[in-house]
Specification:
The protein has about 725 residues and is an alpha+beta fold. It folds into four domains: about 10-40 and about 65-130, no CATH class; about 165-275, Potassium Channel Kv1.1, Chain A, CATH 3.30.710.10; about 280-335, Alpha Horseshoe (Serine Threonine Protein Phosphatase 5, Tetratricopeptide repeat), CATH 1.25.40; about 425-735, Neuraminidase. Helix content is about 30%, strand content about 25%. The protein is built from 20 helices and 32 strands. Strands 4, 5, 6, 7, 31 and 32 form a six-stranded antiparallel sheet that branches. Strands 26, 27, 28, 29 and 30 form a five-stranded antiparallel sheet that branches. α9 crosses α10 (about 250-260). The longest helix has 19 residues, at about 20-40. The protein is flat, with a radius of gyration of 47 Å.
Length: about 725
């Protein structure tokens, strides 16, 4: 009878249950069942009859049959393992047994059981394994390699002990205490310390270099200028990694650690003193840092004293400051004192502490900012000190302070260290403007980071469409309207000056022409106003100049065209005015030279615009925001930003655009970034409360925060306020509403 072979699994057609292996095996099993059904059971010769089930002969008979007739056939777990591990999925199954074999039923039954177990095992494989397309050849991954005991024998593993370092140090310290294996003696103040050369060399580069020298041939090193107590602290740390300190111990330890260049111990002492600093010991810690030249400790102590100077000045330790140290603090803008009169009184206490200090009075008073003391206090509390009148240097300072207060309109031109506010607290300022309930007089301090606002002060009247500028940290508020009437019907000529040093207002002479929607700038210690509405829809091209020395306004050369809402910026002591509305939106740029009193036409912007902003950052001028009209005569927001190079007389349109429309507001520069507060968006016809920032370095716009209320038609600038504002009760009127 011909021998029948089934097709290989690798080339078979896959059809059953989406499981390619199971489908092929089941086909083969059906084939065996059909053959078995067609075969009649042969008559077993008597001598080869199977033993009775359960008898002892049955097991022997089956074993002999397997060895004789079925040498490759296995059953149970052995069969399943071999079919899987030996690649049965990729090789042909055994051929169908011949039908005339007397043991065919037994063979088929054994093979059938093995195939069923294999099929059950294969169907438990992850479903993702069987996600092959229909009629596709099954690709079975080989099993992972079995561990190789021989290879594992050569594998390297790094193991560590957390307790090893402590145990080693403990052992070394024990050797030192019992003078075991010590090969070096350190002699300080007639005390001898027994140590190990290798330990010192491993810890300290100083000892490593010292012990390398041929001159150190004996077993003794004498350390001059050090204390035995300090060296004992250091050696204990080297051998135990522990340092038990008090503030009184630190100088002894630092003396040894700095001499022997042990930076690890110096850092530990520095960090310890920083953690212990307070108003009563800060001067002592400053002196420790200065004496041993621990730079970071000295800087930390100085900063602590500056930030807490008022409290420190009441401590006994304050008198430990030298005249040099006190002068350094008096020169700083970060000195924490609420008023300059308090600074003066503090210096008086220092001078009167010891008679030998009075000769330093002129040197000390030179750094007291007399101009920041009110005239009344100068007369009542400063002039009454006898040395202020008798010492020539002190008397000259007092006279200068009186002159400063005698001519207030000249103060921006008389600025010096003696009139500079002690602060680095620069704040965004928004003055007046339109809210939902109308114009406001509030002067708001605005945080660029959180949008939080506080009322710094109030202008003498409600204002909108006005302009502000900062000159010598005085804020000038010029022109505008009392309401947002179109065409500048209620334009004003008023001029006010705000002094953040004293939180006070000064009324200055008015302009010669009323103005709103105009440009205001500070140029060479003077103020210039350009164009605008002068009332009743009447535009002007006039330009006026205010001179603080003379406290007067004068007309200078007029602008080339009558324009409303132009913008401008100052660069290299020249004034650049661009855009505006002159019956139509214009894109012209003109430069004014105050030395020649002449206007010069420059390259025009790419886009006509008005009610926009212009600012100078480094050597470029930026034109930002504003609006114009489209072909249908409808007002639209201008989102493009243009950059002008005065050196090249060229405009560039920047890739980045303003996130939303911003008209009727001022852009201001702080730390070389540009901020826009609020404004009006024509697309939505609504006022805005957002604070936007243009990051010049990255040419990127970003949203910083939102104010509590929307605002437009205001004027913006930056001011340096006293260090404690907005928490200073002399300035804070309350949160904005």
């Amino acid at each position: 009878m011909p021998n029948h072979h089934h097709p290989s699994l690798k080339s078979s057609t896959l059809r059953h249950w989406g499981n390619p292996i199971r489908g092929t095996i089941m086909e083969y099993m059906e084939h065996l069942e059909r053959r078995l059904a067609k075969t009649k059971p042969p008559k077993t010769p008597p001598q080869q009859a199977a033993p009775i089930e359960g008898s002892g002969e049955q097991e022997k008979w089956m074993r002999e049959k397997k060895e004789k007739d079925l040498p490759s056939l296995k059953t149970g777990d052995e069969e399943e393992e071999d079919l899987y591990d030996n690649g049965a999925c990729a090789a042909p199954l055994p051929s169908t047994p011949p039908l005339d074999d007397p043991e065919v039923e037994f063979k088929m039954e054994a093979l059938r059981n093995a195939l069923l177990k294999l099929c059950t095992k294969l169907t438990t494989v992850s479903p993702n394994f069987w996600q092959s397309k229909p009629y596709e050849t099954a690709q079975v991954e080989p099993p992972p390699p079995k561990p190789n005991p021989a290879a594992a024998r050569h594998r390297t593993v790094t193991l560590t002990s957390a307790a090893h370092s402590d145990k080693l140090l403990h052992g070394l310290n024990g050797l030192r205490r019992h003078k075991i294996l010590c090969d070096l003696s350190l002699v300080v103040d007639d005390r001898r310390f027994h140590v190990h050369r290798s330990v010192l060399a491993a810890f300290s580069s100083y000892f490593r270099d010292l012990l390398r020298e041929e001159a150190i041939r004996d077993n003794e090193v004498i350390l001059e200028g050090l204390t035995a107590e300090g060296l004992e602290f250091v050696l204990n740390f080297i051998y135990t990694a522990e340092l038990s300190l008090s503030i009184n111990d630190v100088p002894k330890v630092l003396e040894v650690a700095t001499a022997l260049e042990m930076t690890a111990i110096i850092d530990i002492c520095s960090n310890f003193l920083k953690s212990e600093i307070n108003t009563s010991n800060c001067v002592e810690i400053l002196n420790i840092g200065s004496y041993f030249n621990v730079t970071d400790l000295r800087a930390f102590s100085e900063d602590f004293i500056l930030r807490n100077f008022k409290a420190v000045s009441t401590e006994d330790s304050f008198q430990q400051l030298s005249d040099r140290q006190l002068n350094e603090f008096l020169r700083s803008n970060k000195l924490d004192m609420q008023s300059e009169l308090e600074v003066f009184e503090m210096v008086i206490r220092w001078l009167k502490y010891s008679p030998i200090r009075m000769p330093f009075s002129g040197k000390m008073m030179r750094n007291v900012r007399m101009a920041l003391i009110t005239p009344d206090d100068l007369v009542d509390k400063v002039q009454s000190q006898y040395f202020m009148m008798n010492d020539p240097a002190c008397n000259a300072l007092l006279i200068d302070a009186f002159k400063y207060h005698a001519t207030p309109h000249r103060q921006p031109c008389m600025q010096s260290l003696n009139s500079t506010l002690r602060s680095d607290n620069e704040v965004l300022i928004a003055v007046g403007g339109l809210r939902e309930n109308g114009a406001t007089a509030d002067v708001l301090g605005v945080s660029p980071h959180t949008g939080a606002t506080f009322v710094l002060s109030q202008t003498p009247t409600r204002l909108v469409d006005h302009s502000v500028v900062t000159l010598a940290n005085f804020m000038y508020v010029v022109g505008g309207q009392t309401s947002g009437s179109p065409g500048g019907e209620h334009s004003l000529a008023s001029v006010y000056r705000y002094d953040p040093r004293t939180n006070s207002w000064l009324t200055l002479p008015p302009m010669q022409e009323r103005r709103s929607n105009f440009h205001l700038c500070a140029l060479k210690d003077k103020l210039y106003v350009v164009c605008g509405w002068k009332g009743r829809h009447e535009r002007t091209r006039s330009v006026e100049c205010y001179d603080p020395h003379k406290n007067t306004w004068t007309f200078v050369e007029s602008y080339p065209v009558t324009a409303v809402a132009p913008a401008g910026a100052v660069y290299d002591d020249k004034l650049y005015i661009g855009g505006g509305y002159a019956g139509q939106y214009i894109n012209a740029l003109n430069m004014y030279d105050p030395d020649t009193n002449q206007w010069e036409e420059k390259a025009s912007m790419a886009t006509p615009r008005a009610w926009h902003s212009m600012v100078t950052v480094r050597d470029k001028i930026y034109a930002i925001g504003g609006n114009c009209k489209d072909l249908d005569g409808k007002r639209i927001d201008i989102l493009t930003t243009e950059c002008y190079s005065p050196k090249e007389d060229l405009w560039y349109t920047l890739p980045s655009e303003v996130p939303s429309g911003c008209s009727v507001t001022n852009a201001v520069v702080m730390k070389e970034n540009v901020y826009i507060i609020g404004g009006y968006e024509w697309k939505t016809k609504r006022s805005k409360k957002s604070i936007l920032c243009y990051f010049v370095e990255d040419d990127r716009w970003g949203w910083k925060s939102d104010m509590k209320n929307s605002l437009n038609g205001m004027a913006c600038c930056t001011l340096t306020l006293p260090q404690k504002v907005p928490d200073d009760p002399r300035f804070k009127l309350g949160l904005s509403s």
